[in-house]
Description:
10 strands, alpha/beta, binds S-adenosylmethionine
Amino acid sequence: MPQSADTNSTAGVLYIVSTPIGNLEDITLRALRTLKEVNLIAAEDTRHTCRLLAHYEIGTPTTSYFEGNQVQKGEKLVARLKAGESIALVSDAGTPTISDPGYRLIVQCIEADILIIPIPGPSACIAAASVAGLPLHNFVFEGFLSPKSGRRKRQLRDLRAEKRTLIFYESPYRVISFLRDVLEVFGDRRISVARELTKKFEEVFRGGVTEAIDKLQGTPPRGEFTIVIAGSPSDKE
Ligand code: SAM
């Protein structure tokens, strides 16, 4: 039986709600209404989400749902959904399930025949891609590669011949070693490094990989980074 979105009813629905990736104004009216109307908000980090809720004077109760408790917590959430409650799932920033917890809960809800409704909004990968200046008719979102250089280089080698634009998440502690591996495996391709999008120190670098490394080496990288890399220019790679 296909699922249908009955927007007049909030009973027994799991909402996947996108929240800001920095700037608190980046939230839809529908997301705010949903967060107000649901019985419970399942949040990756309740303290983090409470700052957003306080800003918009939303008093909905919260509970934690994160990598470490998702199996047992998912069962509890499904039981509440089955009992007719509505729940919003949020992550710390952006769209839940995109390199964030949520996939397991969605599978559990599909198995329990619970209606799942997306409340779309920000995602760092889309925001970074949209300003990268690289082709986006299609693209590959890779999320985080391995933190270990050896494994990361193997992962990059598997992507070397990919012609579509590639999007990666990386931590500030590893962004330079990540770019060094990219240079070694891909060569000096066109790249965009988006830092702290929508925040006070937002910055978008566009240029070659070598230039990006030189720029980042000047001051220790801080904040959140999304890296967009041009696809392979040749069939030979
Ligand atoms: N689910 C989130 C989304 O939809 O954007 C992504 C979660 S993932 C755990 C967090 C990563 O997203 C960060 O390590 C960084 O690579 C990227 N990111 C998050 N906020 C960002 C921002 N404001 N600017 C650039 N990249 C960001």
